[in-house]
Amino acid sequence: SALLLFISIMTMFMSGVVAIFEYDLKKIIALSTLSQLGMMMFSISLGLYELAFFHLLTHALFKALLFLCAGVLIHGAGNTQDIRSFGGLSLNFPLVTVCMNLANLSLCGVPFLAGFYSKDLIVELACQYSWGIFILLMMFICLSLTVLYSVRLTYLSFVGPYGGGTSISVCESDYSLVGPVVILSFTSLVSGPILSWLNFPAPVLIFLPAFLKWGALFFVGVSLLVMLSLQGLTYSYKWGAVSKFSGLMWFLPW
Questions:
Q1: Whole-prediction pTM value?
Q2: Separation CA 145–CA 198 (nearest Å)
Q3: Residue 122: inside a domain, yes or no?
Q4: Which member of 15, 41, 85, 240 has the greatest number of CB atoms within 10 A?
Q5: 82 pairs with which residues across the strands?
């Protein structure tokens, strides 16, 4: 279990770091899936099998929503996956923007969305098992990385300056595209509490000191602020070697 613990933590860390330097929309979402799979394996290595399954279910709902939203954006932005050619898409795709941000916030573990119920429980129980300061610190860093690449994706796609790609806003009038997105948005709002009531008939009792109890929320908040302040920097040029190393997934395919 210690080996699985180490491999899962490193998987979460690697996929988080790589996603921060990635520009392909689908790759970022795929890397975030890899990160969450690491989270599930981390949960299994602690012996929390039911929690891992619970996280699998909630994660499936909002990740499906993320991929569908990405599909609508790619279709509407002239079939490009490069988020550098996006920018200001919230004007063209208001509904998809809301739904995708909902899925992103759920992924980050923002309180009372689907991802929060499973992710926060895994984090708090891991703190209670106290595997040592290194494992806990790495876990919180991986949590922060999730927030970092999610905020970066949202900023570059919806908020930041227009990247010069073509965009057509007729996608949102196609109900076969937008219908499933709206339905899945609803599930990523309510599936967390509903599935937790179904899976865990008795509440989980967790005893933690205040700083660990607030740790997850603190790291989410701080990394949100850090990424918002970093958005002005085109750090891909300043971090050339790191960016290349990360962009090629730490040379693991080779």
A1: 0.88
A2: 30
A3: yes
A4: 15
A5: 24
In a domain, 50, yes or no: yes
**Structural domain boundaries enclosing 234:** 2-163+174-251
Which of the 8 DSSP states describes residue 233?
S
The pair of three-digit structure tokens given for residue 39, joined into one six-digit string: 């989270």
Structure tokens at 91: 């004007």
The SS3 call for residue 48 is: coil
Give me the DSSP letters along 151-210: HHHHIIIIIS---S----GGGGG-HHHHHHHHHHHHHHHHHHHHHHHHH-SSPPP----H
Residue 64 inside a domain? The answer is: yes
Residue 117 lies in a domain: yes
Amino acid at 67: F
Q: Which of 36-45, 79-88, 239-248 has the highest mean pLDDT?
A: 36-45
Number of domains in the chain: 1
Whether 122 has a pLDDT exceeding 60, the answer reads: yes
Copy the structure tokens of residue 170. Answer: 């007729």
Residue-wise pLDDT for 143-197, tens only, equals 999 998 998 898 888 887 777 776 666 677 778 888 899 999 998 888 888 888 8
